[in-house]
Amino acid sequence: MRPYLDKASPAAWKAASAYSAAIAEEAERLGLTLQEAELIKVRVSQLNACAFCLDLHSREARGAGIVQQRLDLLPAWRESALYSERERAVLAVAEAATRLPLSEELKADLSGAQHTLGDEAFVAAEWVALTINMFNRVSILSEHPVRPRDAGGEPITRS
Known about the structure:
Elements (H helix, E strand, L loop, with lengths): L4 H4 L1 H20 L4 H15 L2 H13 L4 H5 L12 H14 L5 H39 L17
């Protein structure tokens, strides 16, 4: 078992957590909604197959008011009419920031997203996507476990 990066280097984890909080604050200031930020975090975590972050941010997304159906359909967002133009734009940013290097198709997606969101919210979406990509890698490399939870999202303790 590899060491948990957050536990093995608490100063680095504290700095990463402060960075994440600064990005969240700046994203809100730049006009990205909490729901949009959570959609980015869930989609990036899906693409990276980060079970720990997917578990965490699916719960956070529901807490931010995103209904389960929209989370269930997130892998097929391009084929669904349930997402607004802005949501589609932030999801395009999430995918482009995760599927590097940028292809011509991803560059076109980013251009469309920038047009839809405006420069400030577009930059905020990019920062949120970059940040969750980093945290996905911390959790994947650390092999953070996903704890079983009940229907209300509370951890199940085994006797």
